[in-house]
Structure formats: C-alpha cells, structure tokens
C-alpha cells in the first residue's frame, strides 16, 4: 500500500513539475498584472506611432504605397545596412533616413530585392544638416505644366522622383520615439543565434482601390473607391469691392501664394519653405497694408489669392481661372481681363544666407507690365534703407519662371505679366523640397519678414500706378515681425500648432495634431462653395484672417454664426464660442479640384480632355484611395522550436497523467480485493 501511494505521489509531482516548466516562461516578465483582455493585448502588442505612405491614382495608373492584397502583412524586422544589405527572407526593412532615396530607386529596379521586401519603416532620426538633400519629387516638378519647351532644367537638384512610383508594400515613417523602440527590437532580432527573428511588424495598409481592383482615377471614381484631390482656395480684395460691380472697375494687381505641400508621407506634408513661407509672407503683407487708410484712392485694385492643391497639378489656380471664365459666384466682383499684373510670393524662407536677405525675381516675359513689377520691387528694396533687403532679377539663362502658380496664368494667356519672388536663382535653395524634412528648422523668420516688407511696399507702388508714390505713406508700411513668428508657430509647429491663440480667435480647429498641408480630398458638393460643409483648418483660417484684415466695420454690430444680413458683409469668427462679427469684406472661397472632373448625380466623373484647356489636357487627375483602418504594430512570435517543446510537454503531461490514473486505479482495485 505504501509503495502504491508513493508511486501515485511521484506521478502527480511529475505532472506538476512539467506544468510549471511549461508555464514559467509565460509567467515571467516585468511582474505586471493582467486583469483584462485589453491588458493582455497591451502586453503583447506595441502600437507604433508612424505616418503612412498611401495610394494615389491618376488617369494612367497608381503611385504610393499599399498592402499587395486585402490581408495584413506580417514579417520579421531587419535593419538595413550599407555593405550588408542582403535579405534572406521576406522582411520588414528598418531603413536609415539617409538611405531612403537610394533604397527606393534600387527596389524599383531590382526584382530580387523587391520580392524580399514585405514592408519598410523609415527612421526619423537625423539632423537636416547631415543630409546633402532629400527630395522625393522630380528634378523638374510638374514639368508637364511648364509654359516653355525646356523640361530638362534641374530646378530641384536633390530630386529623386521616388514619390511618383508605385510600391506594392506598406511604408511608414516612424516618429522619434518609435525609431528608438524599433531600433531596440531590431537589435534583439540581430542577437538571436539561430537566425530566427522573433519580433515582427504587422501592417494594416489595405487600400480600397486594391480590394476593388480599380487601378486608375477613372475606374476608381466610377466604382466609388476613391475621391479626387482638392480643397478650397481663398481670395480677398483690399479695399472691399462691391459684388458684381463692373462699372468703373479698376485694373487688378493680383498677389498670390500657395497653401499646400506634398511629401512621400501623406500626413507629414509640412512645406515650411515651399510654399508656407510664401503664404506667411503674403498674410503679413496684407496685415501691413491693412493699416493704410487711403487705399480707396489708389488707381488699381489689390486682390490677394491663396491657392490650394498646387502641388498636385495646380488645382487651385487652374480652377480659379476656370471660375473667372464661367463668371461663377465664387469670383463675383472680379474679371480676368482686368488682372493686369501678378506678383507671386514663392519660397522665401531661406533668403538670409549672408548678412542680409537677398531675393530673386523671376519674370514672365519682357513686357512693359512685367518690367514695372521688377521696378516696383527695386523701389521697395531701396525704400527699406538700412534693412538692406536685396532683390535681383533672375538669370536670363533660366528657361522661364520656376514651378509656380504663375504657370497657370501664363498657359491661360501667354501675354500674362507676372513675377515670382523666390529665395533662389537657378536651382531651389530648399534641399528638402516636398520632403517631411522641410520643417521649421529649414526656414528663417527674418527672411520671411523681409519678403513680406518687400511685397507690401511693391504692391502699394504698383497700385499707385503712374502717379507719384506718397513716400511718407510708403515708409509707414512696416511688417509685424511678431506676427511672422506667430504664424510660423501656428502653421508649422506642433506646439502650439493650430491651437495657437491667433487661430483659435478666428476658427475652431478640427484637429489638435501637428499641422500638415497635404491638400486632402474634395468632400463637398461644389455648389455650396461660400458655405462649405467641409474646408480644412488652414483654408478656414486663411479665409477668416483675410476677411478680418481686408474689412471695414459693418453697421450691424451684433454677433453672427453664419450669414450676415446685408450684402457685402461676411461673418468673421463664426466658429468661436460666443459667435463672430459681421464686417464688410470681399473674401471668398473658391473650389480647388481638377478641371477634368465633374460632380453629377451625387458622384464624381472624369471629363474628356478639352483642347481649349491646355493644362487640362496634361492633367493627371489625381485621386486618393479610400481605406478602413491604417495600423502598424509590433509583437514577438515564438520560435517553432518552442512550439515543438510545448507540444512535447503537453504529450508528456498527458502520458504522466495517464500513468498516474492507471497506477492509482490498479492500487485501488488491489485494496478493494483485500477487503
């Protein structure tokens, strides 16, 4: 009896020991208590803060990134190093930032490497100055729209063109914190002795166009798996003009800037130098001019326009010109034939390379009107005196104006008189054009302030026409340097970002995340232009800012939350708590989307090319795919050896349990027989 009892105890002990051996690894860790399923998920998975490259389409195909099918992608994480860059299995590539351009160019031309790339994670660490340049755009951005035949000029020497290729694997830009996390994870994978990589990345970047098998803009719009790129441009006049007034209308001096940028990564389209420095300079110039009281007596009318969608086929400027031709309500009060001169403020954030800021004026042709703009810039430069703001006419060896909204005006009318003010002559001074690295560290606030002062005084001189310029008034036009700094903080930084006091005094921002100036997709029915159900934060801020700075007080002092009662009045700050106020201002939204698409029967349709619209003929018609959820997370997967161990341990427990039951049963039967 004693021997049988001992045998039973031994069998039970074996079961307990084996069970503990199996469960011990699962119980080990940091001692955290798992009290719920969410706690377990949090312990198993690391959600990675990152910014995706998404799928865009045009009339001829696709660009950007997507999972190759409708399923998630799971692959081990491997750091990609120069000199040891061979992949032995399908992998998630952790890529240093300085290798980004070379890697994607190689993937596009190396089928063997492509087969081994399951996904790519780009490290965000690295100081801008350590890179000679990183621009995923082409060397001549949007060359198809150029109003001249020389398309080989390298305006953007750093351009690699990688953002215009199609990648059938997910790509994410990591945040600084996530870069450190993934660095540690990849180090763990490298230290495994048997070649097994236990830490994997799981990508959820499934695009609706991939699932629907719609691989161009025409088919995806037809199947409702995408939307056209677009948004809202804004224009305003100073002083206000009466709607529909053509009687005694003055010639127009049009000052323009762009508000959108592009990037390999959708939500990191910051565009500090190109083009937001120009936008900030324009807004600051408007602010400076708004303090002059005799503008109504000037011989020409000042009109300011901020175009959206310029990085994707000059959507805003082309739609603006089309609306002018059609006499649409969005441009009521101005006439294209009355636009006499155009001054565009381009990239102006890097003009301070020496002791003083130095700008370049790129003129459209040699017309007398264009020469007057150049003369006005020179006169404004001289009037700034000790500020030593220099402006030089760009080299005649350039093929024409650089990539700019002015190209739309020239293609519409080759006799257009205009000048683009830039911080470069032959080539972009911005080494990070259309890159996520075109951030606030890439610009100089004093350069933007100098451009604003130069533009404001030039516009006053041009609006004075051939009359004698009031030098006393000219010298009172001074820019608010603090406003420049404030706008940089609001439009380009994460803190305060669009939560800054200036923005929140005019609108209620829809997002508290870091500013990004990607154009987005056009969500509205275009017929409701002046009261759009959706306009992005930047467009709404620009509208309210321009309406405020170009306004005169209205007779009705009551608060408003939308429309004002009298004609010519608009409601500023309608979104803020307590309501806005009605002012007299000619400030309008203009839809910004391709002239080749039309919203009809509650859907978008591609229109055939029209020979009377030369820019429409070459318009790619950009669209963005729908998606459900975009996600990236990391977790550990046990080696198959461990799985075999678990199986064998389970079998051992089963066998030991069987033995214990059999021995116990035999013992009990013997005891019963004796009794």
From TrEMBL:
It is a single-pass type I membrane protein. The keyword Magnesium does not apply. It holds the Pfam family Nicastrin. Residues 1-29 form the signal peptide. GO terms for biological process: Notch signaling pathway. The chain crosses the membrane at residues 644-664. GO terms for cellular component: plasma membrane. This is Nicastrin. It comes from Urochloa decumbens. The lineage of its organism: Eukaryota, Viridiplantae, Streptophyta, Embryophyta, Tracheophyta.
